[in-house]
C-alpha cells in the first residue's frame, strides 16, 4: 500500500511538472522599454490564421432590402486558437484594397473656363475589381502580428467585397468601421458570407482596438473615432483628409489638391467605386449624380450643408480615442491644416494628443518607436508614460524622419505673431517691413485726421505663369513681390501666417493666390524645405463669409483675412522672406482667360507671421 502511494505521488508530481512546463511555454506578448517586442512564436507567417467574414452594419446605402455588410479580413497568431490567447487589434480600413479607376483622359473637371461658369461634363470611368478577393496590404501584418497584435482590414462601403455605396465622407463611412469595432467587442454580428446566416465571433479579441492608415486610410480612423465607439482606444491618422471642403476648396475658392488639377469629390467617388457592379447604377444615381451634383457647387465654391456634413471637426463631440497625428509640412495634396485643426480641437477637449510633423510631402508615418509606444500603452495597457511625452515632435530640416525634435506643443509656445507691412515696388521687388509708414496730414490745422488715401499696386492675371516663375521674376506685371531684409542669422517660424488684404478686380470674379517663399530661389536643391515656405488661396467674392458669395463690383475694394497653411521651418541666414501675391495659380485654381486686373491697397494689406522669439528674434536676425 505504501509503495503504491509513492508511485501515485511520483506520477502526480510528474504530471504537475509537465503541466507547469506547458504553461511556461505559452507564447505571450513581450515588452521592453515600454514597447512590444517581436516574439518568435508570433513571427512565422505560415502559422498565421487568416479568415474572411462580413460584418453587418446599421445602414443600407445600395438600394436593396438588407443592411450593408462590410468585408473584413483577419490575420492572427495561431496561439489565438491553440492556446486561447486573446490579443488587441490593429485595424486598417480602406477604399483602395480592390483597385481604383483608370486615369482616363477627361476624368478630371476642365479648369480652363471663366470663374462662375459651368464646365463641360467629364468622363466617368468604371473600376475593374481586382480578383475575387481584394489584395490586402501585408505591411501592417509584418509590423504588428509578430509584436502580439491581431491585424484586421476592412474595405469601406461600396468598395471591394463590402456592400453599400461610397459617399466620400458621408455618415456610412463613419458607421462602417464602428460596426467592425462593435463586432470585435461582441456587440455586432459577423457572418461567413455576404448574404448567409452562419455567424462568426471574435472570441480571440480583447476588445481593445487601435486604428491607423495613410491619406484616405488615415481619414477613416478619425471618422470611426468621432462616433465615440467603445473599444476604439487609440488612433494614428497619417496625412488624413479631415474635411472634404478644405481638400477641394479654399476660403470660398474652387481649388484642386496638389498634383490632381481638376479633381473634385465626385472624381474621387468614381476612383474608388469598386464594389458590386450590379449596385453601381443605383449608387451613381443616388450619391454621385444627385447628392454630390446638388451639393458640391463648383460655381461659387461656398461652404454649405453638403460640405459641413463631410467635415470631421464638426463631429468630434463624442470622440474619446487617444490621438497621435502625423503629417508633412510640405504636403500640398492633403495640406497640413487637415491635421492641425483636429490636433488643436483634441487638445481643447482634453484628449491624450500628440502630433508628429515632418518636412516632406504626402504620407510619412511617425517613427516605429512612437507608434509602438502609443499602441503598447493604449491597447496592451502597459504603463510606459507615453501620455506624458512631449506633445509635438517635429523633424528638423536636415534630420531623418525617425529623429524628430520634441517640443512642448505646436505651434511652438515661444512663437509670437509679428506683423509685416508692404511698401511700394511690388511689380519689381517691394519691401516687407515691420514699420508701417504713415502719410503726413496735408492740412495740419484740420480738427479731423485725414482719411488715408489708397496706395495701390496692380497686376494682371495670367494662369500660364507658375508661382515658381512669379517668385523668380525680377520684374513682372503679373504679380506683386515684397521681401524682408536679408537674414543675418536663422529665423524660426512656427504656426500659421495670416494675411489681411484689400483687393479690387476689373471683373466680377478673380482668383487670389498668396505664396510665402524663401529667396533667392534655389533651382538645384534637394531640400523640399527650400523655396516654398507656405501658401494660401481665397475668393474675394467671399470677403464676408465662406458660406456666401457676392459678385465683385469692378474697381471696388474688398477686405479679406485668411490663414496660410501651417508650417514649422527654420529659414537660414542669407535668405529673405518673400510674399508673392498673384491671381490664378497654375497648379491649383481654375484657369480663366488672362487679362483680369487685380489691385491691392498697400495701406490696408499686411501679413502676420509666427516668429519663435517674436519681434526681438526678427530684429536680431535682420539687423
Topology, number of strands: 29
Helix content: 10-25%
Quaternary state of the chains: single chain
Strand order of the largest sheet: 8-7-3-4-6-5-9-10-13-14-15-16
**Helix run count:** 14
Give the uncertain stretches in residue-range form. Answer: 1-23, 439-450
Strand content: 25-35%
Question: Quick one: biggest sheet?
Answer: 12 strands, mixed
Rg, rounded, reads 29 Å
Average the pLDDT over all residues and give the rounded result: 93
Shape, principal axes of CA atoms: globular
Note the gap between the termini.
103 Å
Sheet/helix structural class: alpha+beta
Explain the layout of strands and helices.
Layout: H1 2-24, E1 31-32, E2 35-36, H2 40-43, E3 49-56, E4 69-76, H3 79-82, E5 87-94, H4 139-144, E6 150-155, H5 172-184, E7 190-191, E8 199-200, E9 205-214, H6 216-225, E10 232-238, H7 244-248, E11 249-250, E12 253-254, H8 265-272, H9 280-295, H10 305-308, E13 322-328, H11 337-349, E14 353-358, H12 368-380, E15 392-394, E16 405-407, E17 415-422, E18 430-433, E19 456-460, H13 467-472, E20 480-483, E21 491-495, E22 498-505, E23 512-519, E24 532-538, E25 557-563, E26 567-571, E27 576-582, E28 597-601, E29 606-612, H14 614-622
Parallel strand pairs: 5-6, 5-9, 9-10, 10-13, 13-14, 14-15, 18-20
Antiparallel strand pairs: 1-2, 3-4, 3-7, 4-6, 7-8, 11-12, 15-16, 17-18, 17-29, 19-28, 20-27, 21-26, 22-25, 22-28, 22-29, 23-24, 23-27
Helix pairs in contact: 5-6
